[in-house]
């Protein structure tokens, strides 16, 4: 049996785009590979900041997307050419488009409209485009063949969005995670974002406890909050037989 390079995500504190990028850099993906890939989008001023932080005693990598200050809203038809007209590898383009289409479809369903009519407040933001494309770059650079995950802690309470105050999980997040087991540990915060949910829903092929895996590396990607639990995404990279 040929072993598969497997990524396991422990989402005990949820998942967001920047947490995923941080976890992948912590696993060993180079900052230069991620930065040069994002530069290929041709968006002036788009970059990343990387730092080491500690969350409740756990050392983690924090990634912050640095984007031009803009309140511009975009439709999917305006976003995809930015990606598809770039010099990024074809498989990175395909995965990025799949994640954005998945997120767009969830937003459209929640708002009762067609995907072509959705104003992408979150998706259209440059930092979200960077999170999605960056995730695809990192998976390729790490040589990941399959991804599986734990059940997902979504948090609780309310979150302020462009549509006003919404419950946690936000409706689009709940729609995106329909096929993935979720729960709330009672933490009053949005632990899983729509972007994190879209990335996970697209790449995750199975959920459950840590599989039988020959772990090679473990990484932690930090979120932006300081909570009563470590606000980190744990990632294990190794080999499995199935």
What labels describe this entry?
single chain, alpha/beta, 5-stranded mixed sheet, two-stranded antiparallel ribbon
Element layout with pairings:
Elements: E1 4-10, H1 17-27, H2 31-39, E2 47-55, E3 58-66, H3 76-84, H4 90-111, H5 126-142, E4 146-149, E5 152-153, E6 158-161, E7 164-167, H6 171-176, E8 182-183, H7 194-203, E9 204-207, E10 214-222, E11 232-240
Parallel strand pairs: 1-4, 4-9, 5-8
Antiparallel strand pairs: 1-11, 2-3, 6-7, 10-11
Helix pairs in contact: 1-5, 2-5, 3-4, 4-5, 4-7
| Helix segment tally | 7
Question: Reading side by side through the largest sheet, how are the strands ordered?
Answer: 9-4-1-11-10
% residues in beta strands:
25-35%
Estimated structural class? alpha/beta
SSE run: EHHEEHHHEEEEHEHEEE
Computed CA radius of gyration, to the nearest angstrom = 17 Å
The percentage helix is 25-40%
Low-confidence stretches: none
The average pLDDT value, as a whole number, equals: 93
Largest sheet: 5 strands, mixed
Q: How does this model look, in words?
A:
This protein is an alpha/beta fold and about 240 residues long. It has one domain. The protein has 7 helices and 11 strands. The protein has helices at about 15-25, 30-40, 75-85, 90-110, 125-140, 170-175, 195-205; strands spanning about 5-10, 45-55, 60-65, 145-150, 150-155, 160, 165, 180-185, 205, 215-220, 230-240. The protein has a 5-stranded mixed sheet with strand order 9-4-1-11-10. A hairpin with a 2-residue loop joins strand 6 (about 160) and strand 7. The chain starts with a strand and ends with a strand. The model has no long low-confidence stretch (mean pLDDT about 95).
